[in-house]
Specification:
This protein has 931 residues and is of the alpha+beta class. Helix content is 38%, strand content 22%. The longest helix is centred in the middle third of the chain and has 35 residues. The chain starts with 15 loop residues before the first helix and ends with a helix. The relative contact order is 0.06. The structure holds zinc ion (2 copies).
Length: 931
């Protein structure tokens, strides 16, 4: 359906960039901190496929496990909704409103302002700043259809007090529309939505009998724009709500929809968020405006999907076969398929995606920074898909042939589904193929097969991942500790009340000395908080201050021990350190000896050697990152890391394997900077300032407003946001050796390396191996390589001699095989000892040189593996003999199979003892088949 052009709409026309910025500025002027969008990959939340709303990055605040330095926030969040209850990929591009990727504007209050401010600001922004017509705006409020929860008269009261608000425009709805819950239990509350009436002409059900246009109705006249959520309750059971001591505001305003209303386009695709992308595609296709409208669906699909692909790859999600990576692959392939409908035969998405980057690069700098990697990944994926799509259409043609041969004009649906599930060839594309040949598809059968598949493999079936499983689990970090987070929250409150812990919680200083004095503030055994613990018992220890590092940014937690600092001796071995809720650090371990008591003075000691090894590896990780960017290019970006005491692991984006020369270059680069003995400089900085100056942020991490940066060298060779612990000088790393380079996922490489002690051990064990081998061969290690080459040459020489001898023996055997005459045709069948297929074929050539007409079958069983080779001269092929069928029939006797051309064929088997009997059947077979 071509887009409707609508002329009515507020003027002057604002750009989408201005609209986004106006929203941020409006709330900044009202005391809000502008917070950057979090990555599309929610850091630390494995329960969620993609960040799908603005609240994901603040979830911990609502759950009470996290805190921030601010109480008012405004942001524009990147979101992806690809499937399930929120969206269906199939709809995207087929109408004027569905998208995979979108931007969600939001303002937030964490225990700060509430309904009065949220509502009056929303009204002011809409009607004063953006001049939306007051008489066309409606507000929905909550009224419980079950009568259990109080009606939200408070919100309604604020609405009717707004200047120019028509009090008849407050409409009440129940739980489905106007009550927000995070999960079965936890924070929840009523919400209030602003809808706009686009006028009777916008109704798509005009003239349908019985239809009335209304808010939350089924036509397109009323459009929901902004949802204001008021989190005021904590749900503790199916029908029990407790008021929250601190109430929050969480709002969501979809940018695409807002822009379509403010620009009066009637379609999100017609806004300036998409038109430049669509225009680039049109230029590439060489279409006129009219041709574009004829192909409006492919244009929309390509615009939506290229935008999503750019943002996904910009956040490090490259095309692949599982989960998030699969989604990236799927949308690029879908865009490519729809591109074929516009006549694109070669990869075409790169310039389209380039337009996305140019258009969004300012608001989302990660796009511009990763431009090279984004463009390359997209083109690579298009190429890969073009290879499979040929196979898929080939298989499709085969199915069409079958159908015609069966005398039908309808292709069975389950066959089409098979094609879809095996090759990813969508139904629509296949229908096109079938239509060109005058055939139809039995779609009901396709749907049945799809349903069946979904029933077995989950709602999205073919995607092989449960994409719709987007709901948040109450708290993913619960499993980390042995206690639910809420218990630690209580413990924290209790220790604060007692004055055992400061109000800000545990003082966490992983940069402090490796030995420190403290007090045993909290002691938890398997039975809960305890006054004391016995030897052998597992315990959790809380200290008012700790220098033990808690796993973060890839660096593993510290281990160590806590011992009594006063008379009565005891010792706790610390195996792990964690932070189950903000403000609490716990040491997990067990009592080695004595009986620790709450309140005891303690001396805590971090395993110093282990920690120093970790620090060497961490500092080396930063150098490695810099080396990769310097040698491979700026697209090489950290995609994950592990900093352990014995090794470091570093994943990064790079489209192909590194060459051995590049690996050596990187290793040399790092070692050169180690030897240069650079000092490291640690600074606390405003995040914006640090990123502006080029500091590298970790993918998937969330950062506060103040960040710690680490720079190496002067002039600077590495500059990263990092909370880890490091050596003060690169020289202390000692040596750096890459132990492996390989692939983790499509477009992601992994390097493993060792430093310091680990590097010395690695060198020592390699030298030992070298010396052992040299001693065995009686040479010095430096001569080892030459000696091995000599041995190989000797071995090759001996093999040639053996092979010559075997060949002589085989020829001798062959000579003794007398041809048998079958109807005047010479037939030879015989067993040759211990030779391979090549030798058998050589002997067969000898036979053919002597006999212009004849049949020969030779077999051998080197290493007890039967090989049979058969040949039939061309004149006998014309008389009905076929070497492939002959060899197949003989091979069956020895438990094998094979085949080949009519003149020459080969087979294998499993039972060499039956070869003589099998060969004896050859003359009879020839007689039976000769015409
Ligand atoms: Zn209507
Ligand atoms: Zn780091």
């Amino acid at each position: 359906m071509p887009p409707k052009k609508r002329t009515r709409g507020p003027s002057p026309r604002r750009s989408s960039g201005q609209i986004r910025q106006t929203f941020l500025d409006f709330f900044r002027d009202r005391g809000h901190t502008i917070v950057p969008s979090m990555s599309l990959v929610p850091g630390g939340d494995e329960t969620l496929l993609f960040t799908n709303s603005g609240m994901v990055q603040f979830k911990d605040i609502f759950l009470g496990t996290g805190r921030r330095p601010y109480t008012r926030v405004v942001d524009s969040q990147k979101c992806m909704r690809v499937a399930g209850k929120h969206n269906d990929l199939d709809d995207v591009g087929r109408d004027d409103s569905h998208h995979t990727f979108f931007e969600m504007l939001g303002n937030w209050s964490f225990g700060d302002y509430y309904k009065a401010e949220a509502i009056s600001w929303a009204w002011e922004l809409f009607t004063e700043v953006w001049s939306l017509p007051k008489d066309r705006l409606y507000a929905t409020c909550f009224e419980d259809e079950l009568g259990e929860i109080a009606r939200d008269d408070e919100a309604a009261g604020h609405w009717v007090r707004q200047p120019g608000f028509d009090s008849s425009h407050v409409v009440y709805f129940g739980r489905k529309d106007n009550f927000w819950e995070m999960a079965d239990t936890g924070p929840c509350g009523p919400d209030s939505e602003i809808h706009i009436d686009l006028g009777p002409e916008a109704c798509n059900l005009q003239g349908v009998p019985g239809h009335t246009c209304r808010v939350n109705g089924d036509c397109t006249r009323f459009l929901e724009l902004w949802n204001l959520v008021f989190i005021q309750y904590n749900r503790t059971g199916p029908s029990s709500l407790e008021p929250l001591p601190k109430k929050h505001v969480d709002t969501g305003l979809g940018l695409e929809r807002l822009v379509s209303v403010l620009q009066g386009t009637g379609s999100t695709y017609r806004t300036d968020l998409f038109m430049p992308i669509i225009e680039t595609t049109r230029g590439l296709a060489g279409h006129s405006e009219a041709q574009m409208l004829e192909h409006w669906t492919p244009y929309r699909v390509i615009a939506d999907h290229s935008r999503a692909a750019a943002f996904l790859i910009g956040d490090g999600v490259v095309p692949g076969n599982l989960g998030r990576n699969y989604v990236t692959r799927m949308i690029i392939r879908r865009a490519s398929l729809f591109g074929a409908k516009l006549g694109f035969e070669e990869p075409f998405l790169a310039p389209v995606v380039q337009t996305v980057i140019e258009q969004y690069g300012e608001a989302y700098p990660e796009l511009a920074q990763n431009q090279g990697a984004i463009l390359q990944s997209v083109t690579d994926e298009e190429r890969r898909f073009q290879r499979t799509v040929e196979v898929a259409t080939g298989a499709g043609e085969e199915i069409l042939r079958e159908t015609r041969q069966a005398g039908s004009d309808e292709v069975p649906g389950e066959r089409v589904f098979w094609l879809f599930s095996t090759y990813g060839l969508p139904l629509e594309i296949f229908k096109d193929l079938a239509g060109e040949r005058g055939l139809r598809v039995e779609e009901a059968g396709f749907q049945r097969a799809m349903e069946e598949h979904r029933r077995i493999s989950g709602p999205l079936g073919v995607l092989a991942v449960r994409l719709d499983d987007l709901t948040l689990k109450a708290d993913a970090r619960v499993e980390a500790g042995r206690w639910p987070a809420s218990h630690y929250q209580e413990l924290l409150e209790q220790l604060r009340r007692q004055g055992t812990l400061p109000d800000s919680g545990v003082r966490y200083d992983p940069y402090g000395s490796l030995q420190f004095r403290s007090t045993l503030a909290g002691l938890i055994t398997q039975d809960g908080p305890a006054d004391s613990a016995a030897a052998g018992e597992p315990v959790v220890v809380v200290l008012p201050e700790t220098h033990f590092y808690v796993e973060a940014g890839g660096q593993v937690s510290d281990t160590g021990r806590i011992v009594s600092a006063n008379g009565r001796p005891w010792e706790i071995r610390v195996e792990d350190t964690q932070s189950p809720v903000d403000g609490v650090v716990i040491h997990l371990g067990s009592v080695v000896k004595g009986e620790p008591r709450a309140g005891d003075e303690v001396l805590a000691e971090i395993d110093a050697e282990r920690r120093r090894s970790i620090m060497r590896n961490h500092t080396a990780t930063h150098l490695l990152h810099a080396a990769l960017r310097s040698i491979l290019g700026n697209h090489a970006r950290q995609a994950g890391s592990l900093v352990a005491p014995d090794r470091l692991r570093f994943d990064f984006t790079h489209p192909e394997p590194m060459t051995p020369a590049q690996v050596r270059q990187v290793e040399q680069w790092v070692n050169r900077e180690i030897l240069a003995g650079h000092d490291l400089a640690f600074r606390q900085q405003a995040r914006a300032e640090a990123t502006q100056a080029g500091a590298m942020a970790l993918f998937g991490e969330t950062y506060g407003e103040t960040v710690r940066t680490i720079s190496i060298g002067e002039p600077r060779i590495s500059y990263e946001l990092c909370g880890g612990t490091h050596m003060p000088n690169t020289g202390a790393i000692g040596a750096f050796l890459i132990t492996s380079e390989g692939s983790v996922a499509s477009g992601i490489r992994r390097i493993e390396a060792v430093t310091g002690e680990g590097a010395l051990q690695f060198i020592r064990s390699r030298l030992d191996a070298l010396e052992r081998a040299a001693a065995r061969l009686g040479v010095s290690p430096t001569d080892l390589d030459r000696r091995v080459q000599d041995l190989q040459a000797e071995r090759d020489q001996l093999l040639r001699v053996i092979s010559g001898l075997r060949s002589t023996v085989a020829t001798e055997h062959f000579r003794q095989l007398a041809p048998q005459q079958v109807d005047g045709v010479p037939v030879v069948a015989g067993l040759i000892p211990e030779v391979g297929a090549d030798e058998l074929r050589r002997l067969i050539d000898r036979f053919r040189a002597v006999h212009p007409s004849g049949v020969v079958v030779l077999a051998s069983a080197p290493d007890d593996q039967p090989i049979i080779v058969a040949a039939v001269t061309q004149d006998l092929v014309e008389r009905g003999l076929h070497a492939g069928e002959l060899v197949k029939s003989i091979a069956q006797q020895v438990g094998g199979g094979g085949g080949g051309r009519p003149t020459l064929a080969q087979a294998g088997g499993t039972d060499p003892t039956r070869l003589p009997q099998a060969l004896a059947l050859v003359p009879g077979w020839v007689e039976a088949h000769l015409e």
